[in-house]
Amino acid sequence: MDKPSVILLGSKPASVVALSIMMKRGWKVHAVVVSPKFNYTWLNGPTLQSYCEANGIPVLTSQDQLSPEHPADFVISYMFRYRVKSASLQPGTEGAARDDPAV
């Protein structure tokens, strides 16, 4: 059985932890959408963008850059700072999930 592929939308430090767990489990990370307007450099540890860059994961700065032409099994929004647009969920061939305590 192949490991799942994923596109992650995130920004907060916990999204770095979620991404690292996916990678340790062998998931194929096709891209990560970050929230560039928010600065978390005051926290100890890597930002989501720097973690992706260090691990060769493509970084997108807007969910508008996502395309159905680059499908993944799952699109996951975890600690993302913006409302997820329905078009952003289209690349997920198996499903989409989001973590939003406000919902």
Description:
The chain has 103 residues and is α/β, with parallel strands linked by helices. The protein has a single domain, classed as 3-Layer(aba) Sandwich (Rossmann fold). 18% of the residues lie in helices and 28% in strands. The protein contains 2 helices and 5 strands; from the N terminus they run βαβαβββ. It has a 5-stranded parallel beta sheet. α2 links the parallel β2 and β3. The radius of gyration is 13 Å and the shape is globular. The mean pLDDT is 81.
The low-confidence parts are: none
Let me know the number of strands: 5
The number of helical segments is 2
Q: What is the average per-residue confidence, as pLDDT, rounded to a whole number?
A: 81
How many discrete domains? Answer: 1
The percent range for helix content is 10-25%
The run of helices and strands is: EHEHEEE
Q: N- to C-terminal separation?
A: 34 Å
For CATH, the homologous superfamily is named as Formyl transferase, N-terminal domain
Sheet-strand content, in percent, reads: 25-35%
Which descriptors apply to this entry?
single chain; 103 residues; Rossmann fold; 18% helix
Task: Provide a concise account of the structure shown.
With 103 residues, this protein is an alpha/beta fold.
Explain the layout of strands and helices.
Elements: E1 5-10, H1 13-24, E2 28-33, H2 48-54, E3 59-60, E4 72-78, E5 92-99
Parallel strand pairs: 1-2, 1-4, 2-3, 4-5
